[in-house]
Amino acid sequence: MTNQTKPIRVLFVCLGNICRSPMAEAVFCDMVKQAGLAGRIEADSAGTYPDHVSEPPHHGTQKVLQQHGITYEHRARIVTRSDGQRFNYVVLLEQSNMEEVRWICGQTSAHVGMLLDWAPATGLRDVPDPYYTGGFDQVYGLIAQGCRGLLQHIIEQH
Ligand code: 4NP
């Protein structure tokens, strides 16, 4: 990374903003810290479905993050139009949210894409939704691979 003045800002987006995107935010921020890039790369998360606004992460997400020694501070919120202006990257966990994110954000210079496109070895584009079926450990593994690839990409590009 060069010595850019403004931080590179990444927004992770899923449906409810209580399971997958807050996990991605926390995992990514932990990787950024470990790479010594805190303050130069920032992350946040949001959802497209309003029913869980203001809630903390799902207990399954909290448990996995605790198991990996990753701290977090998060309350659910929905994506807003200004997110498209404030973030350099809008990173989706599931393709089904793409249409709504594009509609909410409108014209944006942000890169809008899928997290797992930075983890081609997974062979997946969607991180499975653990809300009804569990599987938070598998979700963590996929998110960690995607975040590693995304961080590498940002380091190389900026
Ligand atoms: P998330 O998971 O999108 O990863 O936060 C979900 C959270 C809530 C619901 C579905 C998925 N819900 O239907 O309430």
Structural summary, described in words:
There is one protein chain. This protein is an alpha/beta fold and 158 residues long. 37% of the residues lie in helices and 14% in strands. The chain contains 5 helices and 4 strands; from the N terminus they run βαβααβαβα. A 4-stranded parallel beta sheet has the order 2-1-3-4, sandwiched between helices. Helix 1 (20-34) crosses helix 5 (136-157). The longest helix has 22 residues, at 136-157. The protein starts with 7 loop residues before the first strand and ends with a helix. 4-nitrophenyl phosphate binds next to loops.
Keywords:
5 helices, alpha/beta, 4-stranded parallel β-sheet, binds 4-nitrophenyl phosphate
How would you briefly describe this protein structure?
The protein is of the alpha/beta class and 158 residues long. Helices cover 37% and strands 14% of the residues.
Q: How big a fraction of the residues is strand?
A: 5-15%
Class by alpha and beta content:
alpha/beta
List segments where confidence is low: pLDDT < 50 over at least 5 consecutive residues: none
- Please state the oligomeric state of the protein chains shown: single chain
Distinct small-molecule ligands in the complex? 4-nitrophenyl phosphate
Q: What general form does the structure show? A: globular
Order of helices and strands: EHEHHEHEH
Q: Would you count the extended β strands for me? A: 4
Radius of gyration in whole Å, from Cα? 14 Å
- Strand neighbour order, sheet with most strands: 2-1-3-4
Total of helices: 5
- First CA to last CA: what distance? 5 Å
Q: pLDDT average, as an integer?
A: 97
Measured as a percent range, the helix fraction is 25-40%
Largest sheet: 4 strands, parallel
